[in-house]
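Protocol step 4 of 6: structure prediction from sequence.
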Amino acid sequence: MRSQTRQFPSAPKHLGRCLAPFLLVVLFAHEASAQSAPESVQVGHRRKVVVSIPHRKLALIENGQVRKVYAVAVGAHTSPSPSGSFEVKTRLVSPTYYHPGKVIPAGADNPLGTRWIGLSTKGYGIHGTNVESSIGKAASHGCIRMHRQDIEELFADLQVGDPVEIRAAADPEIKSIFGDEPADRARDQVITSATAEPAQQ
């Protein structure tokens, strides 16, 4: 019995020597994953939206590659879309339409459709529409309209802070994304973000 009782005190020391390397490996693995996490977030966030007013198209670009191109409606000649650099400020599901003297709740009659992506210029955004036939035309009050399925897909991909470029002319970047400007389409009039007079659509 005495020889057995002398062995028990040494057991914890032996167990500690076995567990120490294992605990160190777990600790180093945890620290390594914590350090690499911010890098993966930064890499995954490199996306932007580019809108070509003359092409009446929108492209979602991720990591420098065009992921998808959508047909859109842009501002009418009397209420042109602003051109410039913006960013996503708000994201709303089933938005309510507000206009002086008029409030339209979410539903089939709502001019904003099912999604609103608000830009950093007040009153302007990318949204759905209750007039699907306007897509591909210069027909809005300045906002960028999309088909319902397209806006819901784009909405799911974007986050607040993502950059949005709206271009008035087919510059080299626009041509590389959308091709040459359509020959049968007169150049749409635009206003810059500095002179924009926003009107919520």
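Step 5 (inspection) to follow. The radius of gyration is 27 Å.
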